[in-house]
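ARCHIVE CARD
CATEGORY: sequence design from structure
SOURCE FIELD: tokenized fold
FIELD CONTENT:
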């Protein structure tokens, strides 16, 4: 998660198509950290509307800032940058996009947006958006199908997750094209702490294919560490606080890992939480992972366990929690 994405000025659209062979999905792998300069930015523009600037942080990490550079009198102010595309599209697989993102302005409607879509022509009537994650007036939100509309991403306490200006986040979007669901995970880029998540939300349409992924914005958007590809959950882990004080409540999440060790969604199933060798004054909610420590609990290590069952397959992990005064 440490190496980022891209930035935009007036409406930004990055179009990343998908490579396919004779209707069968080929291996899709796009990785860019922009450390070798703008020349490494291999996505080509459809129109000469983009200004692409190399930016640098104090630690000499580089990222990309994109701004609109087209005519001011255009009715639609955006640019398109294409990585790869094929009219056949990519079908019935799990597509993942992980990227670092920073917003310089948040009092706007639906900006800094990533879209997974199938397009047969240049117009909106010729485009089907399957899934999207966007920034909307200072909050992350996704669009859900089955009349779900736009939904804000919640933090681990069940409250809406606000966006801080000029703060780097790592976003992970998982889209299951065959089962028609999407999951979103938002991390603090610098601490790698999970800040919020929304899982197994119906995709906007039940289309089982896409042929491009786009980033769209009408305000400045900074990006780094773009990583897009097909993914499968091969392992699991528990995310949460390793230390909990007497009288505190902590919330834990059970997440998947793909074959590259990055976070992904577990297959849709049922998760059960438990405590290995229970201790007086300590409990965990079996369905939510809410961990409660009473004020009288003795210090020491408690091991919590998460079990996720999908048909005849089981994912299981344990996590040590240190109880302190």
């Amino acid at each position: 998660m440490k190496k980022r994405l891209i930035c935009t000025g007036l409406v930004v659209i990055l179009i990343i198509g998908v490579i396919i062979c004779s209707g069968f999905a080929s291996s899709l792998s796009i990785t860019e950290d922009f450390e070798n300069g703008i020349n490494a930015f291999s996505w080509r523009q459809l129109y000469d509307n983009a200004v692409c600037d190399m930016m640098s942080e104090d630690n000499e990490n580089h990222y990309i800032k994109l701004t609109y550079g087209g005519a001011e009198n255009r009715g639609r102010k955006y640019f398109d940058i294409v990585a790869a595309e094929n009219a056949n599209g990519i079908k019935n697989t799990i597509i993942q996009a992980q990227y670092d993102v920073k917003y310089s302005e948040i009092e706007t409607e639906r900006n800094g947006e990533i879209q997974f879509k199938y397009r047969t022509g240049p117009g909106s009537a010729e485009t089907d958006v399957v899934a999207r994650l966007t920034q909307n007036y200072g909050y992350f939100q996704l669009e859900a199908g089955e009349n779900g509309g736009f939904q804000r991403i919640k933090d681990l306490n069940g409250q809406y997750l606000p966006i801080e200006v000029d703060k780097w986040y790592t976003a992970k979007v998982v889209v299951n094209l065959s089962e028609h669901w999407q999951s979103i995970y938002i991390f603090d880029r610098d601490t790698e702490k999970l800040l919020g998540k929304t899982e197994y939300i119906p995709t906007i349409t039940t289309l089982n294919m896409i042929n491009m992924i786009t980033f769209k914005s009408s305000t400045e958007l900074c990006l780094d560490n773009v990583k897009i590809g097909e993914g499968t959950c091969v392992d699991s882990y528990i995310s949460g606080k390793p230390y909990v004080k007497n009288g505190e409540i902590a919330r834990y999440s059970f997440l998947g890992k793909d074959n590259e060790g990055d976070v992904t969604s577990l297959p849709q199933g049922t998760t059960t939480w438990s405590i290995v060798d229970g201790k007086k004054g300590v409990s965990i909610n079996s369905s939510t992972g809410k961990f409660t420590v009473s004020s009288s609990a003795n210090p020491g290590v408690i091991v919590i366990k998460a079990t996720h069952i999908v048909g005849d397959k089981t994912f299981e992990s344990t996590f040590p929690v240190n109880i302190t005064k």
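CARD ANNOTATION: The two ends are 33 Å apart (CA to CA). Residues 34 and 40 are 6 Å apart (CA to CA).
SHELF: design records, drawer C
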